[in-house]
From TrEMBL:
SUPFAM superfamilies: Ferredoxin reductase-like, C-terminal NADP-linked domain, Riboflavin synthase domain-like. GO terms for molecular function: oxidoreductase activity. InterPro entries: FAD-bd_FR_type (IPR017927), FNR_nucleotide-bd (IPR039261), Riboflavin_synthase-like_b-brl (IPR017938), Split_barrel_FMN-bd (IPR012349). Residues 391-513 form the FAD-binding FR-type domain. It comes from Exophiala bonariae. This is FAD-binding FR-type domain-containing protein. It comes from the Eukaryota.
Length: 651
C-alpha cells in the first residue's frame, strides 16, 4: 500500500475542534505520485489465491478530494492502531450529526467524537490514561493509524491510513462509581493521511445512525468468550478489522453479510481463547487486509451491537485458509480467515451512537449477501462423494422436463453410471453441481445478479420420484422445482437431451417412520410436498394426515400429484390461498382448478390455522414438516412440546 511521493512542507496553525492553536500539523503530500509495488504479504496472498495480479496499486498516497468530501459527511469511522505489545486493536466512533471528521489541511484530518474513555482499547493505546484534556504529541514519524470512514445508509466507505500527529482526551467530568464502570469522554485527534482508497458498497446493510452518550460497563475481559459475547456475535451483520504490515502501515476495513456469517469455535477448556472463522466474500481482489495478515498474522476486531450500544473488542492471531483448506473448515468457501482470540473486552453501552436498520428488505440488506455458511463441525453434507475442489464423481443427463405450473417444472435425469453413487433412499435429496455451466469467473460488481458473485452453484433438491422406479436399471430420478434464483431460472431454458450436470451425491434422512403402524402428520407448503412423493413406494397412505398450504396459481402441481397417486386424495387436505380472479388471464390454470375440484380433493379456501392441527393431533404419532422457516416457527408455536421432524437443506 505504500507509494513514492513528492512532498512539500506545510505548516498550519488554527483552532482544530478546540485543540489549542499552537499545534503544528507537519507535512502533507501533494497529488503527484507514482504507485508503488505491492508489499510481500500482498504478493504472497495473490499467489496463494492464484491471482495473476498485474494492476498497479490503486491506493493514493494522500487524501484525495473525493475522500475528503466523503469523510466530512460520513457519520462513522473505524480506527485501528497498535498497542504497546504490537497487537492491533480496532474501534468504531460515530455521531449522528456530522462532521465526525473533516480535512483541516492538505492530507490532514481532524476527528472529534464522544468515546468510551475507560475500556476502548484504541483510546487506551493512544492516550495511555491521560484524560485531562491536555494535548499529546507523537514523537518522530508518529503512531501508525488506520481508518474506515463509512456511511451505512448510503453504502459508502473510504479507507484511510497514516500517522497520528496529536490529540486530546477529556474525561475529567466523568467518574466511575464501581470498578467495572467506566467514563465517557470527548476525543480530538489530528492525523496525517498517507493513504486513501474508495471502496465498493458490497456487504453493507443499511442503517440510520444517531448519536448517543457512552456509559461503559466492562462485562468481560476473557478471551474465552462469555455467552453474552457469543450472543452479540450471532446477531452481528458486520464487524471492522484492523491489520498492520509490520510497523510501516495499517489497514482498516469492514466485513459484512447476513446475521450469523461470523462462525464460532468454542473450546471446552475455559482457559483457551475462543476462535472465530469468517468467509472472505468476493471483493475487489486487492487483498490488502489479507496481505497484511499474510505478512503479520495479527488482527484487531470490533463487533458493534448497533441496537444496544454494546461492543466487543478482540485481538488475536490469524490464519488465512485458501481453497480446499477453506472448504474443509467452512462450507462453500474458497477463502476464509481463522482468528484465535488472545485478548477481548465486552463492554456494555460503550458506543457513542446507535444504528437503526432500514426495514425495506430490498434496499436495507445488501443484495450481495450470500446465505450463512456453517463450519464443517456444525453442519456439512456427508453425502458429497467428492473432496472440496474436485469435480463431481458422476454426471446426469436431462432427458425430460414437464411444466406443471407457471413457475414449477419437473425434471427427469439419467445417471451416466449409477454404480458410482449406489442406490439412494426414499425422501433423500440430490446434490447437483452447475458450476461448469454457470460459473463466469471473477467480476468485481454484478448488480444484475449480485448473489452470483459468491455462488458455488451447488444445489440440493429433493428427489420427487420413488427410488428405482424409473429407467431400465433404476438409474433415472426426478426433481420438481419452483423457479426461484439464477439456477432454476436457467434450467427452464435448457433442452432435454442437451444438458449434462455433475452429481455429487444423494443424502438426507427425511424419511417418514410408519413402523408399528404409526400415523404420521405432514405439514407442507407449496413445493415442500416433494419429500412425500419420493416415499410413496413404501407408505401406508391411509395412515398419513397431510395438511398442504398451496397457492391457487400452483393448482397444476396438485392435479399432477393426484393423477399419479390417486390414493393421496383421501389423505391430503389442501389449504388453497389466493382469489380465483388471479386465474382470469390464465385459462390453463383455471381449467386445472376445475379439474382439481372434479378429482374430489379435500379443499379449504383459506389459510392453514392452528385448529386444523388440533383436530388431527390426537391421531398423529409423529409430525413432519417441510415449509419455509417463518411457517415452521408458527407451527412449532401451535404444537408446543411436540417433536417435529424437518430437514434443513441449507448446505
Amino acid at each position: 500500500m505504500r507509494a513514492q511521493t513528492i512532498s512539500k512542507s506545510l505548516s498550519v496553525s488554527n483552532d482544530l475542534f478546540g485543540i489549542r492553536p499552537e499545534l503544528t500539523l507537519g507535512t502533507a503530500s501533494m497529488s503527484f505520485f507514482q504507485a508503488s509495488d505491492w508489499h510481500e504479504g500482498e504478493k504472497a496472498i495473490h499467489k496463494r489465491a492464484h491471482l495473476d495480479f498485474r494492476e498497479d496499486n490503486p491506493t493514493s498516497p494522500f487524501l484525495t478530494p473525493m475522500a475528503a468530501y466523503q469523510i466530512s459527511r460520513y457519520p462513522l469511522m473505524a480506527i485501528g492502531t497498535l498497542d504497546e505489545h504490537d497487537r492491533p486493536w480496532c474501534t468504531i466512533w460515530g455521531s449522528g450529526e456530522p462532521p465526525l471528521s473533516q480535512p483541516v489541511a492538505q492530507s490532514v484530518i481532524a476527528i472529534k467524537s464522544e468515546v468510551d474513555a475507560s475500556f476502548d482499547p484504541v483510546v487506551q493505546a493512544i492516550w495511555k490514561g491521560q484524560d485531562n484534556g491536555d494535548i499529546i504529541r507523537e514523537e518522530g514519524d508518529g503512531r501508525i493509524v488506520s481508518g474506515l470512514s463509512i456511511h451505512l445508509e448510503e453504502r459508502g466507505r473510504v479507507k484511510l491510513a497514516g500517522r497520528l500527529i496529536a490529540g486530546a482526551l477529556d474525561a475529567s467530568q466523568g467518574g466511575s462509581k464501581q470498578p467495572n464502570e467506566g467514563k465517557s469522554g470527548s476525543i480530538q485527534l489530528v492525523a496525517k493521511i498517507e493513504q486513501s482508497l474508495g471502496n465498493c458498497p458490497k456487504y453493507l446493510n443499511k442503517k440510520i445512525i444517531t448519536s448517543s452518550t457512552p456509559k461503559p460497563i466492562l462485562l468481560s475481559e476473557s478471551p474465552h468468550l462469555s455467552q453474552e459475547a457469543l450472543n452479540l456475535i450471532e446477531k452481528a451483520d458486520m464487524f471492522f478489522v484492523a491489520s498492520a504490515h509490520e510497523h510501516e502501515d495499517m489497514d482498516a476495513n469492514h466485513r459484512g453479510g447476513p446475521q450469523g456469517f461470523i462462525r464460532i469455535e468454542q473450546p471446552e477448556d475455559p482457559e483457551e481463547g475462543s476462535i472465530l472463522v469468517w468467509p472472505e466474500y468476493s471483493g475487489n481482489n486487492l487483498y490488502q487486509t489479507l496481505g497484511n495478515l499474510e505478512a503479520t498474522p495479527k488482527a484487531g476486531l470490533v463487533i458493534p451491537d448497533f441496537e444496544t450500544g454494546d461492543v466487543l473488542y478482540l485481538t488475536g492471531n490469524t490464519r488465512i485458509l485458501v481453497g480446499a483448506e477453506a472448504s474443509r473448515m467452512i462450507a462453500k468457501t474458497k477463502l476464509a480467515v481463522r482468528l484465535n482470540i488472545t485478548a477481548a473486552r465486552l463492554v456494555q453501552n460503550g458506543l457513542p451512537f446507535r444504528g437503526t436498520p432500514v426495514d425495506d428488505a430490498t434496499s436495507g440488506r445488501s443484495p450481495y449477501n450470500p446465505r450463512v455458511r456453517h463450519l464443517a463441525t456444525e453442519q456439512t453434507d456427508p453425502h458429497d462423494k467428492s473432496a472440496p475442489g474436485e469435480d463431481a464423481p458422476v454426471t446426469a443427463q436431462l432427458i425430460k422436463k414437464t411444466k406443471l405450473t407457471p413457475t414449477i417444472t419437473r425434471y427427469r435425469y439419467a445417471l451416466a453410471d449409477p454404480s458410482v453413487l449406489g442406490p439412494w433412499k426414499p425422501g433423500q435429496y440430490v446434490t447437483m453441481d452447475f458450476s461448469k455451466e454457470l460459473d463466469m469467473g471473477y467480476s468485481h460488481m454484478r448488480d444484475d445478479d449480485p448473489t452470483s458473485l459468491n455462488d458455488d452453484y451447488l444445489r440440493t433438491f429433493t428427489v420427487s420420484s420413488v427410488p428405482g422406479s424409473l429407467g431400465v436399471h433404476g438409474e433415472e430420478f426426478e426433481i420438481t422445482l419452483r423457479k426461484v434464483g439464477g439456477v432454476t431460472k436457467w434450467l427452464e431454458w435448457q433442452h432435454q437431451g442437451m444438458l449434462e450436470v455433475g452429481i455429487r451425491g444423494f443424502g438426507g434422512e427425511f424419511a417418514f417412520d410408519q413402523t408399528e403402524h404409526k400415523t404420521i402428520g405432514f405439514i407442507a407448503a407449496g413445493i415442500g410436498i416433494t419429500p412425500l412423493l419420493g416415499q410413496m413406494g413404501s407408505l401406508d397412505a391411509p395412515k398419513i394426515k397431510v395438511l398442504w398450504s398451496l397457492g391457487i396459481k400452483d393448482v397444476g402441481l396438485a392435479v399432477d400429484i393426484f393423477t399419479q397417486y390417486p390414493v393421496l386424495k383421501d389423505s391430503v387436505t389442501i389449504f388453497l390461498t389466493g382469489d380465483e380472479s388471479l386465474l382470469e388471464q390464465r385459462p390453463n390454470e383455471k381449467l386445472k382448478l376445475k379439474e382439481l375440484k372434479a378429482l374430489g380433493s379435500q379443499i379449504e379456501r383459506r389459510r392453514l390455522q392452528k385448529d386444523d392441527l388440533s383436530k388431527v393431533d390426537a391421531l398423529v404419532d409423529k409430525w413432519y414438516l417441510c415449509t419455509a422457516p417463518a411457517l415452521r416457527k408458527i407451527v412449532q408455536d401451535w404444537l408446543p412440546g411436540k417433536a417435529i421432524v424437518y430437514e434443513n437443506f441449507n448446505y
